Predict the 3D structure of the following.
Amino acid sequence: MLSALSRRASALRPWAKLTAATATDHTTEAKPASRQDKAPSTGTWSTSGGGGSSSGSSSSSSSAQPCPLHACLLRHGITDLAPFSSPKHLILSQEAVSSNVEPKVAALAAEGLSPKQMAQLLGHKTHSLLACSYDGAFLPNLQLLRQIGAYTDHRPHPRSPRLSAAGKLVTHLPDATVRYLSRDPGKVQELLQWLEGSLGVGLEQLAACKSLCHALSLSAGAANAVCLSLQQQQMPAEQVAHMLLKQPSMFNRRPEVLSARIGALQQHLGLEAAAALQVAMTYPRLLTNNLEASLPPLLRFLDGFMGEEGAGRRLVRAQPTLGKLTAKAAKRSLGKLAARGYSQQGIQGLISKQPTLLLLDLDSGLQQQKLDWIERVSPWTLDDFMSTPAYFIVATRRLAARLALLRECGLQLPSTPGQIAIPSSATFLAVLRKQLEKQGRELPWASWAEWEEVWLGTEEGKCWGFPPLKD
């Protein structure tokens, strides 16, 4: 099986090409993503006939002919038509649908989106993807996502193999995606020029942003104001760029709000000004929370649960990411540990060893996948992982792929999961090679990446190597 597996290679599917026809502009202005982002081109909300058509004639015509929009959506597998049945949907002309809706749906389908995913985007109520112009907004913005997607390490999900790199970006955060795709491309280009000129952030750097559509929806003016405020606090430009890529929504805040939140870190965690700024730079997600209101009750709750005054401050200073929690969320996380049979004293010990356990939602799909793997595949129990909580927070793919390699090589399994959870990939492979050399054997895979690519192509890899798909 070693030789068979070593010959296997997973090939990434080429991106699906856009097949939709080029759209023509219409007479009604596109609904803007925001006041300053109003797209210059026209969009979908045009209807058949002139302005003098009588209501009786329209009613008779609509009852005799199927709704053009519904027919278009059904052709692409979207069967839940309720979100698309308001009067503004039902009066759309065939011409408007053919030239401005059909190309959008075809483009999304070509990127591998499922009918459910397309319906979620097209039916968004706050920012209308149907209303914006295909040529004047949707298409150029989608093309930019394709350009950025070329810089990502895209691996098709086994349960969604047709989803392209751009398709994955589109489906990640639907609200932000709709806001971005319907945005004036001129505003997007203005933002890109500012990012490149002020922070040295180009398309390749943007590919590392986990909230890309949030970033591309930023106002250049608002982002520049935040940038100047942070630099006035002696934050280097490269750190500002790092913060923007990690938490772009923070750059939509007013500068004085961010200053107040850095001040809250300083006050409630007992930090010097420079230390508070360093925490903000390293954990920019914190600044999206109303820390002035949420941090004091969180610290009080943790003091009470841990039975020690100052315990909350100590835990958050040790793991600043805890600062994004509310007291209510922390209580919920602790309750889920208690529901699995751990006593308060036991949980206190776990949290002291690994405070980030408070951040885990054991009912989430990602954590359920890990719990399933521990129960169905792992030779170790949940208690084995929780005895050293740092083992439990390791990604399921890392644990599963390493255990699979040990079993594939026929090597003895370690007594604890630490040997597959903690070492770097290079160290883990070096240990395996030494064990195999003692037996006169060699490892068929030259690198960890080579083995992982092979393993992801197996049924086991498809099951445990990819995060569960969101509904």
User: Anything to note?
Assistant: The chain has 28 helices and no strands.
